[in-house]
Amino acid sequence: MEMIKNLTNVRGIKCWGAHTGIKSLRRDLAMIYSDVPASAAGVFTQNKVTAAPVDLTKKHIADGKAQAIVINAGNANAATGEQGRLGAEAMAEAMAEELKIDRELVLVSSTGLIGEPFPTEDIVKGIRENVSKLTTKSNAGSFTANAILTTDTYAKEGFVEFGVDGYEVNMGGIAKGSGMIHPNMATMLAFIVTDVAIEPKLLQKTVEEAADKSFNMITVDGDTSTNDMVLVMANGKAHNDMLKTKKDPGYSDFKKNLEEMMIHLAKQIVSDGEGASKFIEYEVVNASKVDEARTLIREISDSTLVKAAMFGRDPNWGRIIGAAGNAGIPFDYQKVDLYLGSDEKIVKVIEQGVPQEFDRNMMKKLLRESHLHIKLDLHQGKSAAKGWGTDLTTDYVMFNSVYTT
User: Hey, where's the site called Cleavage on this chain (predicted)?
Assistant: First the structure.
């Protein structure tokens, strides 16, 4: 049987996922290592309260270089003061010492409960005991993906092979996230490695643009976390000519595959939304500007009333239009078409601002499906965007009412 490819199939990448005891049953320490320094880029939470690892990683990635990433699960190391800051630094220091690399080449991430004292000694001990286990064996990729989970019900992974100007390039990614998911990133982490050769500044710009199409277009509950980050390392071991500008041969192929990887991981996060029973794709077409299309999607997808209607299989399209009108985006309602349904069938419920007759029983059957589709056609431009979200269920409320107990 052919093994599923993952992080370890990227040239020069080793990884491992270990159990240190921070979480009682699951692996809780993930490590990713490139055998050469790599171009690195990242995007981070927009929350004004940032966790210690976010602050440290922003400093370490400022020069566009990295060689290792270490992640702990079970404790967010957020709102932990000086003790947390020292804990994040200790993680980077231990990883650097064991790998014999500069500490500034180590990026640090944490996920878990906010405000709990950070178990620095246990995590540092786990790092020192497990660095020697870093490997290219395929099971290590799976272990690493599982070691970053918190309330997730499954590991989120992706891998793709593609060409850049005639050179074979590999890209692997992992992510976590289930609750506190909201546009501009929320309790979600994603780590992507590739062997393409690309300059750091161009990589950073590409990651930012790809994040706007993917992780910044998902929502579960409207809460943006303290710990979000997406990190990408590109170590150049594909030996393609260095990508320096967007006009270079092969750049468009790299960007396309990075966007697809990020969208793939982002959609997995939404599919695993806490308590969710529906995966909803939102689409706005023929808008004046891309940013306006994205803003409309974010407003609609984060509407409590819209999400509750989808949970109840209620074809109450008025909630969708009402949410769109709250987005602060100018559009002519008399030109709007609105479609509602599932992946299998979508029905026009408004045409040019006029409500259309439709079979409500048939619509309720469509809304029983696990994958739903809402499409808004503004008829006022050529721009479009997509986003993804969930319904709002009683299970979500129950889970989050007792999460820390």
Answer: 186-187
